[in-house]
Every structure is written in C-alpha cells, then in structure tokens.
Design brief:
The strands form two sheets. Strands 2, 4, 5, 6, 9, 10 and 11 form a seven-stranded mixed beta sheet that branches. Strands 1-3-8-7 form a four-stranded antiparallel beta sheet, with no helix packed on it. By secondary structure, the chain is mainly β. The chain starts with a strand and ends with a strand. The protein has no helices and eleven strands.
C-alpha cells in the first residue's frame, strides 16, 4: 500500500520560512518523479514544483521560482519543499505527489500536470499571516 505523508506545515509570518517534508512508503521511491501542489480555499489545485528521480532536475511554477526549493533524499524516501520569503498568497494546503510515468527523459513542464501523478498525500496546511 502506497502512502505519502506530508508534515511541516503551520502558521508563519509573511517573509518567513517553512520546510515541508513528504515521506513515502510502499513504493520504490527512487523510481518516482515527485511533485508538490497546493490548493487554496475556492481554488483549483495548482502546481508548485517537481523533481526528477535523481534529484538533479527541478522545475517550478513562476509564482514560487526563486523562493521555493525542492530536494529529495532517496535513502530516506523523502522529498522536501523549502519555502522562503513566504507571502500571504502562498497560504494553502500543500500536497506531495508521486509519478511513475514511464518516459525516460525529464521534462519539467510535463510533470506540472496533475494527471501525471499516481499517488497523493493527504496534505499539510500552510498559513501565512500578513
């Protein structure tokens, strides 16, 4: 049974930082591309960033580029989202997702689409006060 469990959310002031973690189990983590998405109340779930299997390649939404950093530790089956310079508009439930898409090459934009992902976590709330 595949499980993705996010943690690290909370309340932070604008300009502050948070680090989200997502621990995966029930899958061979190193074979999965990973993504982070977020959903604010009344809005659709939107792409935040993605990372290749090795962790060498990353891709970000324009709204977070330069402020957020995705990384992974395949030995710990964990993907991280470091969020700096947080803004009130970053407040949302953040979800990690795992993709077992069979393509052999990395395409950041390809993995910005929710449909590429096979498994999702339950989400962690991030609140940013102004």
């Amino acid at each position: 049974q595949v499980q993705l469990v996010e943690s690290g959310g909370g309340l932070v002031q604008a300009g502050g930082s948070l680090r989200l973690s997502c621990v995966a189990s029930g899958l061979t983590f190193s074979l999965y591309r990973m993504g982070w998405f977020r959903q604010a109340p009344g809005k659709e779930r939107e792409f935040v960033g993605s990372i290749s299997r090795s962790g060498v390649m990353t891709y970000y939404a324009d709204s977070v580029k330069g402020r957020f950093t995705i990384s992974r530790d395949n030995a710990k089956n964990t993907v991280y989202l470091q969020m700096d310079s947080l803004k009130p508009e970053d407040a949302a439930v953040y979800y990690c997702a795992a993709s077992n898409d069979p393509r052999t090459y990395w395409s950041g934009s390809y993995y910005s689409d929710r449909v590429r992902y096979d498994y999702w976590g339950q989400g962690t709330q991030v609140t940013v006060s102004s």
